[in-house]
Design brief:
Blueprint (H helix, E strand, L loop, with lengths): L4 H5 L8 E3 L4 E3 L1 H9 L8 E3 L24 E3 L4 E3 L1 H6 L7 E3 H4 L7 H44 L1
Antiparallel strand pairs: 1-2, 1-3, 4-5, 4-6
Length: 155
Amino acid sequence: MVMCDPCSRHNKSSDGLKYCTDCEDTLCTDYIALHSAVKLLASHHLFDVSLTTGNTFSIKKDCKDHAGMCFEFYCADHDFLICRTCMANMHRTCGKIQPIDVAAEGCRSSSVLEDVSKDITSLLISTKTLLEDRQKKKTSVGQSKAKVLKKIAKF
């Protein structure tokens, strides 16, 4: 369970449901509503906490080419996250630029993700089978060793 950061700072306890990459805070229902109500916060990018596997978020949001600029867009032509300056200077002729949150909407349900999940499941099953087979062979070698040692002792 991830806690709401603003609530924690006020000695309250609430479950965090969304993560704001701009504030770098996990937010509860009340603070999510505040984000959409306050004009200055309305353009912030919120993501479901369930999209991450752990309690830490390591989302790189600063453009390495333009100091002080944050990634806001995804250029599908170049498969790159870009800031406003990148968009204006280097990607102005690109036809497939979207805000990051819009571009990310279909990621969790994409067929590519489904294929990768199936491949991983298949690899896990194969690995389990190999480990079981190895254990059987190890047991068999141990039994063979015992038989050989008995024969040597009788000889």
